[in-house]
Design goal:
The chain is an alpha/beta fold. 43% of the residues lie in helices and 21% in strands. The protein contains eleven helices and twelve strands. The strands form three sheets. Strands 4-3-5-12-6 form a five-stranded mixed sheet. β8, α8 and β9 form a beta-alpha-beta unit. The longest helix has 26 residues. It is rod-shaped and about 105 Å long. 28% of the residues are buried.
Amino acid sequence: MPRDVPLPPLNGLRAFAAAGRHMNLRAAADELGVTQGAVAQQVRGLEGHLGLRLFLREPRGLAFTEEGRAYHTSVSRAFEQLVEATDALRSAPARVTISVTPTFASKWLIPRLSDFTEAHPGIDLRITATERVASFHADGIDLAVRQARPPFGASLRADLLFAQEVVAVCSPSLIVEDAPLNAAGLARLTLLHDTHDLWPRYAEEAFGNAAKPARRLRFNQTTLSLDAALAGQGVALASRFLVQRDLKAGRLVRPVSHVMAGGLDFYLLSPRQGVSSAGIIVRDWLCAVAKCEAG
């Protein structure tokens, strides 16, 4: 419908729809909780707005005109659609979209999602795994987890989840002795690199650049290098919190004791204004779990 066509008054449409269902003004008034006179007046007002008659007033009640019958079918359908849309809106779960890196999603968030969904079944949590910087408004993102360092924009709230503490990990099948590896021992293993390329700095801090590994494998995501480490393909570097579950379960071990401060910590970012109540619940849950594990 063109926007310059004025819509009929809503009260008139409601009165017409009710009167057409009952074909009786008194019954329509009882349904709407108003007087019979009010229904009659609203229907007359609608007819005046449209410039045509919708009902014939007969001794036994009402009868549709030809135009009134066709219009009632359309008006009734429109009200049914409004009821269905409102019911769907009220019954739909609250939706929260969080943007995280693929490694954070697979190695930390996904293993803990069952706890969240059990505690908050009414929240539809949607996870977008991407390395690119997300736009809260343009991409429809409510929350984001990123490696970064302050300061942040004035429009953003930043909650520190984990400091970046980088450790070396590998499958226990690669380690013969319980003692940490020295430079020569590490040099005999394959180093698994990701796009962060932290091995040169880590080796320098741990061994003074004495380690000269003969073999390297390179991956474009940290999660792939960790999967390779779990498969016994070599030694990977990762933030300690990302591998804590695998270390505790014995799937990974730390062949080198050195811990390197990475400098790019993991922050939960959210707009300072406009976060939904469901978004606040997700934000608080993430912060609480991270605090518990970091503490």
